[in-house]
């Protein structure tokens, strides 16, 4: 369970992912800052621990993309659906061959898997529902908490407003006021993402939580995981480019 927490349920991991600069946000075209912020946040949030555990145990499941694309995910360090569910669109789209269309396909596949174990998931965990919850949290945060001076807040017409009011503005609109520079907007996006990452991170699990499951169940899960990993390794070896293979073995270290 410690490994599971490290990849799926660790608030610090979610926070680090939200603060990672990734590609320059100056090149991102979006309708609002909220789009840029959302690209830094996990595909799914507030998933119950047992649902995340199902995603981890399932590996990449059945029918998930092609063997070649699954190999690219594993080579990039992604181990299972749980890992992907807690990763951001920006991070996933950084993998070769994974543009917006494939990121959307990944999200849809994971949502379908979640819906198998979690009643109401298709209403609660759609991209739109998640975005609505996040905007609601930003409405509870006064704009004064952002790294903006009082003069800049007034110049932007945000005095007395909330972080949601800022998130609804576009980068071009903000820069057009002359009150902020591109670097300032980058910092605002990072701050908004940090606020939401902290608010959406799961509560730490009790140290003795793993004692609830019988040892026999843990052994079954471990055996199933080992079998899935062996199958995934075979798929990776078959799909990987020739240059990524070594004589008598594979270059994969993860």
Please characterize this protein's 3D structure.
With 254 residues, this protein is an all-alpha fold. 59% of the residues lie in helices and 2% in strands. The chain has a two-stranded antiparallel sheet with strand order 1-2. Strand 1 and strand 2 form a beta hairpin. Helix 4 (49-57) crosses helix 8 and helix 5 (67-75) crosses helix 15. The radius of gyration is 20 Å and the shape is elongated.
The total beta strand count reads 2
Strand content: under 5%
Radius of gyration: 20 Å
Number of helices: 15
Largest sheet, in brief, is: 2 strands, antiparallel
Cα distance spanning the termini: 18 Å
* Uncertain regions spanning at least 5 consecutive residues: 1-17, 19-29, 206-222, 244-254
Structural class: mainly alpha
* Strand line-up of the largest beta sheet: 1-2
Q: Kindly state the mean pLDDT as a whole number?
A: 79
Coarse morphology? elongated
Helix content: 55-70%
Spell out the helices and strands N to C: HHHHHHHHHHHHHHHEE
Secondary structure blueprint with pairings:
Blueprint: H1 2-9, H2 11-19, H3 33-40, H4 49-57, H5 67-75, H6 81-85, H7 89-93, H8 100-117, H9 121-124, H10 127-139, H11 150-155, H12 163-167, H13 171-176, H14 182-200, H15 215-239, E1 245-246, E2 249-250
Antiparallel strand pairs: 1-2
Using brief descriptors, characterize the structure shown:
single chain; 254 residues; mainly alpha; 15 helices; disordered N terminus
Brief characterization of the structure:
With 254 residues, the protein is mainly α. Helix content is 59%, strand content 2%.
């Amino acid at each position: 369970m410690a490994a599971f927490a490290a990849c799926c349920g660790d608030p610090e991991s979610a926070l680090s992912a939200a603060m990672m600069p990734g590609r320059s946000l100056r090149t991102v075209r979006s309708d609002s800052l909220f789009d840029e912020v959302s690209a830094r946040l996990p595909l799914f949030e507030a998933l119950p621990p047992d649902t995340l555990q199902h995603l981890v145990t399932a590996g990449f499941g059945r029918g998930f993309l092609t063997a070649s694309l699954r190999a690219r995910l594993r080579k990039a360090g992604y181990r299972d659906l749980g890992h992907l569910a807690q990763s951001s669109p920006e991070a996933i789209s950084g993998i070769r061959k994974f543009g917006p269309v494939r990121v959307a396909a990944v999200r849809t596949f994971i949502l379908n898997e979640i819906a198998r174990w979690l009643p109401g998931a298709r209403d609660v965990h759609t991209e739109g529902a998640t975005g609505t919850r996040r905007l609601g949290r930003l409405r509870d945060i006064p704009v004064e908490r952002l790294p903006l001076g009082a003069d800049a807040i007034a110049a932007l017409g945000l005095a007395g407003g909330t972080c949601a009011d800022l998130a609804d503005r576009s980068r071009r609109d903000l820069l057009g006021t002359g009150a902020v520079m591109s670097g300032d907007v980058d910092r605002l996006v990072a701050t908004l993402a940090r606020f939401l990452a902290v608010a959406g991170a799961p509560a730490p699990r009790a140290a003795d939580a793993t004692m609830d499951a019988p040892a026999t169940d843990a052994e079954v899960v471990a055996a199933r995981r080992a079998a899935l990993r062996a199958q995934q390794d075979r798929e990776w070896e078959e799909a990987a480019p020739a240059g990524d293979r070594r004589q008598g073995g594979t270059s994969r270290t993860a």
